[in-house]
Amino acid sequence: MPLPEQAFDELDAGLVEAFLRAHPAWLAEHPELYRILAPPKRMHGDPLADHMAAMLHAERAHAAEMAAHANGVLAAGRAAAGLAQRVQSVVLALIDTNHPAECITGEFPGILAIDNAGLCAEAWLPGTRTLAAGTIA
Questions:
Q1: In the prediction, which pLDDT does 2 show?
Q2: pTM for this one?
Q3: Cβ contacts of residue 118 below 8 Å, gap of 6+?
């Protein structure tokens, strides 16, 4: 749970150091914190190189996650654009036909890339599936 901002001003750096000395694995067990820490300089030797490597690993993992998310958003956008074009095509096919039920059952599946399509009506019409009166309302 995040501390209020004024609590950070009152926090003693010695307490933080004592906590980390008493729990040396704590930071490694909370790698999400590496993204907000300032990286150490390599001039301090090998122990800090591991710390910097962990920070780089955390940032690379975050970058990969963001790239995957962006790819998902782009794929969804492409799929939506493709669906919109297919819907436009079925509307045009429906406008152009003299037999809506035949158009729906014969042309819609190919255009929409679905297994089948049907037209339902509350009254019997050739080529439709009859529904009970009041179903649509």
A1: 60
A2: 0.43
A3: 104, 105, 128, 129
